[in-house]
Amino acid sequence: MRKPVLGVSIAVIATVAAALGGAGAANAAAPTKSPIPNSSPGWLAHGAGVTKGAAAATTGAVNARVYLAPSGGLAALQAYATAVSTPGSAQYRHFLTPAQYHAKFDATASTVGAVTSWLKAAGLKTAVEANHRYVDVTGGVGAANKAFGVTLTKYTHDGISVQAPSGPAYTPASLAGSVIAITGLDTTPSTVSPKTQKPAPPSAGYRNAPVCGLTYGAATPQNLPAPDGTNLPKFMGNDLPYTPCGYTGPQLRNAYESGVTGGLDGSGVTVAITDAYASPTVLADANAYAKQTGDPQFANGQYSESLPNAYVHVNASNGKPQCDMAGWYGEETLDVEAVHAMAPGANIRYYAGKSCNDKDLLDTFARINDENRAQIVTNSWGGAGDVVKPALLLEYQTLFLQGATQGISYLFSSGDDGDENARLGSPQTDYPASDPFVTAVGGTSTAITADGIIGETGWQTSKYLLKDGAWTLNTSFLYGGGGGYSSNIPEPQYQKDAGIQSPNGGRAVPDVSMDADPTTGMLIGQTQTFNGVASYGTFRIGGTSLASPLFAGVTAVKIQAGGGHGLGLLNPGIYSTKGAGFHDVTGDMPDAGAIRVDFTNGLDASGGYTYSVRTFNGAETTLKVGTGWDPSTGWGSARAGWIQ
């Protein structure tokens, strides 16, 4: 997760975007060099936590990436992506092919030539990305200092040692506006993490205890007594159900797609999934799970992968393991099985990042856009909070914009830490979910029976433990769906037009929501390692990591119903109809919470059981459900009316 030390105001973002309106030519009075926007490390301003060392030795190495501005400027690209995604626009759904996009928006050959000549003249080696998105730069510290007008120095901040410039990097004045961002001069790691919730640490094997219902409120397979030999006590005077064991594909389709006619199942549509790394057992696990739960297994060719040549397992700056590969395997498994559950006929193409570094996930989006095989991209990961480097935001946004111009819909989980106040000390949204050119999918607690959904509210959980025969508050806020108002990104026009009143002028999150509460989560099947032995098993899981692929599956069915054509950025259409076809989530659940029984050791009954109550929408946060759009669930959860 990104550290919350790289803050920037909405005004700064707006200024950067305006500056990138075109690749400017210097006038006669221009200086000899021009600063690269936001290239000075944001953490330098936090002097109390920063220790400055000596200048980096000129014999040291530098690996940097220089990102080039789109031809015509970012504003022109934003305008085009908005026009093709907005109902009523003359360009609505006049999407581009990748070749047309590159011809229209790639940095020109003359710009690339000028940038590489400048870098080579300083003694750096360059490698230009095939579609002119960036120039990779390698060389010595001395050459980098000369090229970018910096002094690379050793620093310690936030418990890590890095190499970074002491101020902004520069281009020649003649290239002002041609470079959108630079990474690598500051070696501070920039990583993302999955938005998944399961009880055990992600890298450890985990099994559900068998005390749970096959549907919400159902009788449990067996009824273990409380530790003192008596029945479990009432919660605030009421009897509560046990948690469901985990909803399956047939149950979830009956809940969200009931009423969809014509046998629609997502056939002919491709959903892309991105995560770090690639599970070697994901297809076998998904097929075993489908067979076990009564769904069709993948047909030949229905599941495919796009993988990097190699994976990065350690942090290059300190040589320590990073990213928790096994944890990402669980994320990938959830994503694949959740999409298949909602759209069993859709194709799934998995794009693996070679690590959890932002740079490597950005590369997956470039592959998705240039291949142009998918109509939807679901992403169940993100950073901690919306305090993101403006340079990084622009790198991500350029790729989201390319997708929108080609008719590709990008979805992101909104996060699992509610309004982030408990973790970061102030209400925030998470990025990339808060980008205006993606659809942020928030979380609900959802009661599903054989009759479908009988209750739904915003996912915000408190936890009570059984102590001395009574339920005692343990954690006032345990977890919950991310939402609120961005402190970095201005409110987009489609939200203003829909009457969303942002108290700080920031992008409002989420846009829509689906089931995410681990208490009412999905049953998935995965090969895990228990005491050194790998074996397949099922367990319940939640998080907005579940919500995003569920919504991706529903969207695949919608695309099929509409003739198979991509929809591009979904938000203008959703907001222009004020969530038509979505169920307005207003806080109605049959119970105050549910009783969860876990193996104390996460594996088996040998260590006994742990009992807890997980409440529904009972945690104290700024995110409240209400009529219409709200910062907990957006416009609500998808239903058949939106699909057809």
From TrEMBL:
Biological process annotations from GO: proteolysis
Pfam families per UniProt: Pro-kuma_activ
GO function terms (MF aspect): metal ion binding; serine-type endopeptidase activity; tripeptidyl-peptidase activity
SMART domains given in the database record: Pro-kuma_activ (SM00944)
Cofactor needs: Ca(2+)
Record keywords: Calcium, Hydrolase, Metal-binding, Protease, Serine protease, Signal, Zymogen
InterPro entries registered for this protein in UniProt: Peptidase_S8/S53_dom_sf (IPR036852), Peptidase_S8_Ser-AS (IPR023828), S53_propep (IPR015366), Sedolisin_dom (IPR030400), Tripeptidyl-peptidase_I (IPR050819)
Cleaved signal peptide residues: 1-28
Keyword Calcium: yes
Domain called Peptidase S53: residue spans: 246-644
Domain of life: Bacteria
UniProt protein name: Peptidase S53 domain-containing protein
Provenance organism: Microbacterium mangrovi
Taxon lineage: Bacteria, Bacillati, Actinomycetota, Actinomycetes, Micrococcales
